[in-house]
Amino acid sequence: MRAFMLLITGLALAAAASAQEQDFSKVEVKATRVAGNVYLLEGAGGNIAASVGEDGIVLVDDEFAPLAPKIAAALKSLGITDKPVRYVINTHYHFDHTGGNAPFAGEGSTVIAHDNVRTRMASGGTAGNGGSVHMQTQPAEKAALPVITFDHDVSVHLNGEDIRALHFPAGHTDGDAVIYFPRANVVHMGDDYVRYGFPFIDVDAGGSAEGMIRACEAVIEKMPPDVKIIPGHGALSTVAEMREYVAMLKATSAAVSKALKAGQTLEQMKAAKLLAPWSKYSGDFITTDAFLETLYNAMTKSGHTPFVRHN
Ligand SMILES: [Zn+2]
């Protein structure tokens, strides 16, 4: 949920804007081979992974509805298969990752996602950091909803891959999945790992930095050290780069946790410029203050003690 947020900020719209208000006519969708038969597709919104092979195509996320024809054209231009997109797996409910669900479903694709993705898409609601970053999302049309949902994990066996969708709780949202292609040795992290600076954490949808850290660390521990990492947003990445991101999440969480235990208010932490040492991560979407607020809200609203230790 980045392009959308920039749009909101840019136009200073208060609420209820829809993705349709963004102009997608000039967006180009570029396909790059990552490894094996797994491709990265970049247009606008979240990164797409595609397994393209003899059995057809499996997509991970699908950006925005108006881009579906361009995504389909980019896949066809690879010249690998004329078979359709058989499955779309959503990494989470945000509509810069699920916007293409309805058009792809209309062409016969089956959409798969965690239980909470379907629930949140069906209901609509507030996405936000529990404070200054927030917006309303409308209930999705029925055609956009995942048809197959899972609680813990699910596998799709196509193109010689055992594609694994693994749920990690309370990270970017409460319905995140990391998608692993073991044969190609590629993983799509969803928005548990992004490269635009401080991450947006949807605290209003059950997200927390703690959960994002756990998801990233599980991938680092369990997957091969040379696994190619597709972040939710930004360029193809490596374990070393994701470690650096995890270190930032841990250090900033520890700083906020320590200040909380010392009885500081959010305003005092902002005044003390608590996260200044990590200001290189500040972006126009999530500023240093917005990220401080995010961590504070996730820790105070979840009602439990943050797990990050400090001295
Ligand atoms: Zn997102």
Q: Can you describe this structure?
A:
The structure is a single chain. This protein has 311 residues and is of the alpha/beta class. The chain has one domain: 4-Layer Sandwich (Metallo-beta-lactamase, Chain A). It contains nine helices and 14 strands. It has helices spanning 3-11, 68-76, 95-98, 101-106, 115-123, 209-222, 239-261, 266-271, 288-301; strands at residues 30-35, 38-42, 48-53, 56-60, 85-89, 110-114, 125-128, 134-137, 148-150, 153-158, 161-168, 176-181, 186-188, 228-230. The strands form three sheets. The chain has a seven-stranded mixed beta sheet with strand order 1-2-3-4-5-6-9. Strands 10-11-12-13-14 form a five-stranded mixed beta sheet. α6 runs antiparallel to α7 and α7 crosses α9 (288-301). The longest helix is centred in the C-terminal third of the chain and has 23 residues, at 239-261. The structure holds zinc ion.
